[in-house]
Specification:
single chain, alpha+beta, three-stranded antiparallel beta sheet
């Protein structure tokens, strides 16, 4: 049995605190100890792409571009 099925790339965008830890609040901090969001990060599930930036729209755009250009359905053999 062959397991040569291509891996689908995923690159979720995560909000980050200043120290690099993930901010798990939906929007505004519920916990008064939360320092708030200072950036966003994305890492591809295949491990070949990582980006961190302060602008969420930029990170989302780059993540979509990476996933789209690495879509296994579009790879010609």
């Amino acid at each position: 049995m062959s397991t040569d099925k291509p891996v689908r790339h995923r690159a979720p965008v995560l909000p980050l605190h200043k120290d690099g830890s993930e901010c798990k609040h939906r929007q505004k901090p519920v916990d008064p100890e939360c320092p708030g969001r200072t950036g966003y990060s994305t890492t591809c599930s295949a491990g070949d792409f990582t980006l961190t930036n302060g602008i969420r729209a930029y990170v989302e755009e780059q993540a979509r571009h990476h996933v789209h250009t690495n879509d296994p359905k579009k790879v010609t053999r």
